[in-house]
Structure formats: C-alpha cells, structure tokens
Amino acid sequence: MRFRFRLLIWLFAIYSIACLAAGIFLAHVTLHPYRRPLPSDAENEMRHVAAGLEAQLESVQITAFDSALLRAWYVHARHGNGDSVILLHGLGDNRLGTVGYAQLLFHHGYSVLMPDARAHGVSGGIYATYGLLERDDISRWFQWLETNQRPHCIFGLGESMGSKLSGVSAQSSLSPRFLASEKLGTTAWVSNSTLARGLVARSCARWLK
Hints:
Layout: H1 2-31, H2 42-52, E1 55-63, E2 69-77, E3 84-88, H3 99-107, E4 111-115, H4 134-148, E5 154-159, H5 161-171, E6 178-183, E7 186-190, H6 193-208
Parallel strand pairs: 3-4, 3-5
Antiparallel strand pairs: 1-2, 2-4, 5-7, 6-7
Helix pairs in contact: 4-5
C-alpha cells in the first residue's frame, strides 16, 4: 500500500513538473516568436520595385510608448490617388510578407506603409503581446501618416496576426477606427471619420477590385 502511495506521489510530481515545463516553453515561444530577419539587400530591391511602378520608398521609424523603435517602409505613389494603406504582416514574418499586397495597391494608385510589428523584423520590442501593446503602435503609425503624409483617407490590410491586430485597433478607444470588412482572416479598416462614415462601402469596393 505504501509503495502504491509513493508511486502515485512520484507520478503526480513528474506530471506537475512536465506541465510546468511545457507551460514555460509555450509562454516563451508565444511571447518571443521567431524573428524573421530582413535581408541586407531587401531595401534596395524594394526601391527598384517601387521605381518601376513610379513610386518612391522611404525608410521611416517611430518610437513606441515603451521607447521601442518601430521601423517601416513608406512607399509613396508619385501619381497616386491620395490615399494610403497600412499593411500588417503575420506572426513570425516581417514587412516582406506584405510585398505582394503592396504591388497590387501600387497599381491602383495607393501609397503604402509597411511596418515590422514589435518583436518582428528589425523593429524593437522584447515581447509580442498580440494587441495589448500593438494597438497603440498602430495608432502611432496612423498619427505618423496623418502628420507627415496627410492622405485623403487611410486604409489598413492585415494578414493572419495582422488581421487580428487591425481588428483590435479598430475597436480600441485609444485608436478609434471604422471596421470596413473582414474575410478569410484578412481585415480592412478605414480612418478619417468624415470620409469613412459616408464612403466605407464604396471605398473598400473600389480598393478591393
């Protein structure tokens, strides 16, 4: 009887230790996702792509509330429609994951902002918090666009994790946005209250054509 009791105690202890170790590992992997590096020649290649589409690339950065440096490319369409789109990449990716969307948008006259999320690419930040801190980061990117580029309207397109972050930003009291559409894990949101309230449906239809 004592042997069985001791065996149960040992099994329970081993199980508890295994669960604790698994929890610590999962928490570490979740908060510290794989950081896909940005190749050294990526910016030059993107400049070449932008130049071929009559657009100009600018490397930009902002400072988050926790002093993390967030970096991005802003690609300005020289003969664009006056609107801008923020492209948000997926988990474990970087801004290069949105290049295909950017090229599509260039063809339709949009300027695009392609940021690396915190703890991704070459942006700073120790932890990925899946919206807790990122919603303020996105709000600051909106403020940067409104202050430095003054677009007629700001749209957003998020893929995978970026889709969730855009939804959080759209609903955040810190960064009020207007949710335009959501389909297959991809979210589009729109800013500029006067334009957004009247033209959300028409603008998104025009954009997604």
